[in-house]
Amino acid sequence: MSNSLLRVLLLVWVLGYLLISCGSLVGGDLGGGLVGLVAGAVLLIPWLVGVVILGALVWITNPRRR
User: Fold this and answer.
1) What total number of domains does the chain contain?
2) Which of 20, 16, 8 is nearest to 57 (CA)?
3) Does 7 map to a domain?
4) Which of 16, 15, 14, 20 is nearest to 32 (CA)?
5) Are residues 40 and 20 in contact, defined by beta-carbon separation less than 8 angstroms?
6) Is the pLDDT assigned to residue 36 strictly greater than 80?
7) Predicted pLDDT of residue 41
8) Which of 39, 50, 63, 64 is 20 to 30 Å from 6 at the Cα level?
9) What is the Cβ-side half-sphere exposure of residue 33, based on CA atoms within 13 angstroms?
10) Which domain holds residue 51?
11) Measured distance CA(1)–CA(55) in Å, rounded
12) Is residue 30 a contact partner of residue 4, using CB atoms and an 8 Å limit?
């Protein structure tokens, strides 16, 4: 159960970052796109740390196959 929850959380973490940093540019709002791009640049390091931590937790909680 915890592995599946962590996988979903990792997916939300990755897609949420992409939505914040690139969502306005894709929508065509250039002014908001610049704000999103700056926010994406500021949040890049914490996002990478989160991806590494969540990825490690998914790997650790992965059930062992026999």
Assistant:
1) 1
2) 8
3) yes
4) 20
5) yes
6) no
7) 78
8) 39
9) 8
10) 2-60
11) 16
12) no
